[in-house]
Protein: Relaxase/mobilization nuclease domain-containing protein
Amino acid sequence: MMDGQRVDAVLVQWGERLFFPQNRIVSPDLPPRLHGSLHVRAESVRRRIEATVVRQAPQVIVKLAGGGRGMRAIAAHFRYISRNGQLEMEDDRGELRTGRDSVHDIVNQWRYGGSLIEDVSSRREAFNILLSLPEGFSPGVIRDAARDFAKASLAGHRYVMVLHEHQASPHVHLVVKAEAVSGERMRPWVGNLRWRETFAEKLRARGADVEATRQSTRGENRNYEVLWRLRAKESGVLRTASEPTRTGENYMKSRAQAMQAWSNIMSALAESQSPQDRSLADHIAGFVRRSPFFREVVGKYDRQADTASQRWPEPSLGRASSRIEPGPEMTR
Structure:
């Protein structure tokens, strides 16, 4: 049996790789996600594990859906998300507006405020962000969390947000001006993971049980569909049950690294003196076995073994020997 401090040390070491990779932070003012004593950090990892593998909390979605190359495209997106002014728009100053004249006013503010935005530009002058959750969450909670998210993550930028609650899953459209008040331009691809975590934090503060783990942590193998395909499915124009899947060396490497982290965490919890930790190890074993990536890798070995008229044995994920050793196909 491991003592509690050794278990906590393993949880922090490998939990950071699963849930807090490189502690990427968009703003230097934001604190690291894991801080405090060893036990405090380990408890934070335990909470993330329980939410992911026991409760299987819904995953928040923060999707960067392109952006306008010029004021003509930005204005068209304003009209789309506001239904030409019929839906309420909220800006970075907290002002609420409706009507076509309001859309026109916002367009002029963005065009002439700061550097002039021409009708057509060679670069993106705004970015479109979609914040959403699966069905079953209150539109008001999503709207309020989106407002808190925007204040924390988009400070210094002009933005407009609109809540859509007329579809199955309520969601918020955010349009953020690429150039900040300071003149610095936004680099949204740097902070997408941190954005998801911030949105999840704001939702949890309002009582929503949600998570923001990476696909590799969950052993997922899907690519998110592009926005036009999602809209086409919602409108019934496109009918397909197929889901785009990921392949390639980076995909295999990230999933194999996640499996290694789960394996080390599971081994430590299985050797813990705490019954709660040992129960959590069992939950992890089931979660990993059910993950698409694990089943994909096991399936590859099974198909290869079938060719040789013998089956590859499934790795033991029991309490005493709960390690997942990535095979050659996982690390190649």
Q: What stands out?
A: The longest strand covers residues 126-132. Strands lie at 61-64, 89-91, 96-97, 126-132, 159-164, 171-177. The chain has a mean pLDDT of 82. The chain has two domains: 4-56+248-331, 61-210.
